[in-house]
């Protein structure tokens, strides 16, 4: 006679359904870390690019800004919106990823002089 532990690969309890739950949780953690690293990547780029990057360089990396406006000193202010994504939770409900705005300030020579991250308005 074969013991029940050997049929389940040496694990007691749990079974196949438990394995699926762990895989789902692991997948959720991985997705969350990827989203977080993407956000940190933009912030770190802007931080490192102050006083060095030009509008052309930022535009090549991130594309056209979602919003532009003239700055008081003759430069420009560019805004990029990161709306995140909705993800389904374990309960089946969709949670929003939130919205962040990256506001970049360029001088007359088109050099990045400052940036800030804000929550989206409206």
Q: Could you characterize the architecture of this molecule?
A:
This protein has a single domain (13-119), classed as Beta-lactamase Inhibitory Protein, Chain:B, domain 1. The strands form two sheets. The protein has a four-stranded antiparallel β-sheet, covered by helices on one side. It has helices at residues 4-7, 15-49, 55-62; strands at 67-70, 76-82, 87-88, 94-95, 100-106, 112-119. The protein is α+β, with helices and mostly antiparallel strands.
Keywords:
single chain; 122 residues; alpha+beta; Beta-lactamase Inhibitory Protein, Chain:B, domain 1; four-stranded antiparallel beta sheet; two-stranded antiparallel sheet; 3 helices; 6 strands; elongated
Produce a short descriptive summary.
With 122 residues, this protein is an alpha+beta fold.
